[in-house]
Write a structure and sequence with these properties.
Distance between the termini: 58 Å
Strand order of the largest sheet: 5-4-1-6-10-7-11
Radius of gyration: 22 Å
Structural class: alpha/beta
Helix content: 10-25%
Strand content: 25-35%
Number of helices: 9
Length: about 325
C-alpha cells in the first residue's frame, strides 16, 4: 500500500520566547540539527511516496530546511490542525493509500514506532488509527474518551473542551494518526469549529467517522518519550539530553570509547571510526568524519572536520578543516 506523510510545522512556538519574529519552533537545533529534520529522518526508512510539510509562522526558515526532501504547503491562517492538514489536499486528495499525520516538533519518534503504527492500521483495516500515550500528567493534551465497559474509543476531546471528569483522564492524544487517504480529505470537509477555541480540529474526525460506522482504532505508545513534543526551551533541553544519550550509546556500541558520555556532545551527522577515544568536554558537530584510533579531547570542539587515523587532538577548537594521519594538535 502506498504511504504518504503530512508533517505539521506551522505553529508559532510563542513559548520559545524568541526575539526573532521569523524563528519557527521546528527550526531550533538539537545537537546542531533542526528539530524537524529529526522527524523527517525517522520517516526515511519507511518508503513514503510523498511527504508534505505544512508551514506557517516562520515558514521561510522551515521551508529552507525541508524543501529538498519534501513538498511544502502554507497554512496562512492558524485555524487548527484540521485546517492545517487541509492545505495538503491539492497534492494528496485523489491518491490511493494511507496517510500519516505527525507533528514536526517530535524529534524523538523512531522509525520502529512509526512502522508499528502503520502495521496496526493496515492489520485492522482501519479508516483511522489514532496514537495515544498514558501520561503521569496529561495537561496540555487532548484526552482519549472511551466507552467504560468495552474500552472502545468514542472521541478525542481537546483539553479546552473537557469536562472536569475528562480532565482527569491520563490517556492523551499525541496528535499522530494514520488515515485512509481518500477518506481523510472527504471527512475534512465535514469538520466544524464549534468548540471553545473556534478551531478546526483534526481530532473531530474520530467522531465523524464513528458516526458513519467506519473502523477507527488506536495505538498506545509504550514509551511516552517517543511522542514528546517541544514547546519551550526546557523541553528542548530535555529532548537534547535524550538524543545525546542515544547518539553516544550507538557510537560506543560501534566501537568508540567515551570517558564521560555526560560531557560529550555529538551531532547525529558525525562519523567516528573504531578505537577512537573521546575524552571529557568534547563537542563534535556538523559534518565531522573521524577515522580510527584517534584520541579526541579533553576540551575540544570540532565542527565540519575530517580527520584520518591515530591523531591526538586536545584543548582546541577546529572548524572546517581536513586533517591527515598521526597529527598532534592542541596542548
Amino acid at each position: 500500500m502506498n504511504k504518504y506523510a503530512i508533517i505539521l510545522a506551522a505553529g508559532k512556538g510563542s513559548r520559545m520566547q524568541s526575539i526573532d519574529p521569523n524563528h519557527s519552533k521546528v527550526s531550533y537545533p538539537i545537537l546542531g540539527k533542526p528539530i524537524i529534520n529529526y522527524v523527517l529522518d525517522a520517516l526515511k526508512p519507511l518508503d513514503f511516496k510523498k511527504e508534505v510539510v505544512v508551514v506557517g509562522f516562520g515558514g521561510e526558515i522551515t521551508k529552507s530546511l525541508v524543501e529538498k526532501e519534501c513538498d511544502v504547503v502554507w497554512q496562512k491562517e492558524i485555524l487548527g490542525t484540521g485546517h492545517a492538514v487541509q492545505q495538503a489536499e491539492p497534492l494528496l486528495k485523489d491518491l490511493e493509500g494511507e496517510t500519516l499525520v505527525i507533528y514536526g516538533d517530535t524529534p524523538l519518534v523512531s522509525p520502529q514506532t512509526i512502522s508499528s503504527i502503520l502495521h496496526i492500521h493496515e492489520k485492522e483495516n482501519n479508516a483511522l488509527t489514532v496514537v495515544s500515550s498514558i501520561l503521569p500528567d496529561a495537561t496540555g493534551y487532548g484526552r482519549m474518551i472511551r466507552e467504560e465497559k468495552s474500552n472502545h474509543l468514542l472521541a478525542i476531546r481537546e483539553e479546552t473542551d473537557c469536562s472536569e471528569y475528562e480532565l482527569g483522564i491520563s490517556e492523551a492524544n499525541t496528535g499522530i494518526c494514520v488515515f485512509d487517504n481518500k477518506l481523510l480529505f472527504k471527512y475534512l470537509k465535514k469538520m466544524d469549529n464549534k468548540n471553545n477555541r473556534k478551531l478546526f480540529y483534526l481530532s473531530q474526525l474520530v467522531e465523524l467517522m464513528l458516526k458513519d460506522n467506519l473502523p477507527v482504532g488506536s495505538f498506545v505508545v509504550e514509551d511516552m518519550v517517543e511522542v514528546f513534543g517541544i514547546n519551550d526551551r526546557i523541553q528542548l533541553a530535555y529532548a537534547a539530553k535524550i538524543m545525546r544519550k542515544r547518539i553516544n550509546n550507538k557510537l560506543m556500541l560501534e566501537g568508540v570509547s567515551m570517558e564521560d558520555p555526560e560531557s560529550t556532545y555529538i551531532s547525529p551527522t558525525v562519523k567516528i571510526g573504531k578505537d577512537t577515544i573521546i575524552l571529557p568536554n568534547t563537542t563534535l558537530i556538523g559534518d565531522c568524519d573521524l577515522g580510527t584510533a584517534n584520541e579526541i579531547g579533553p576540551n575540544v570542539v570540532l565542527e565540519n572536520v575530517k580527520a584520518g587515523n591515530n591523531n591526538k587532538i586536545s584543548n582546541i577548537t577546529i572548524r572546517n578543516k581536513t586533517l591527515g594521519d598521526n597529527e598532534k594538535l592542541g596542548e
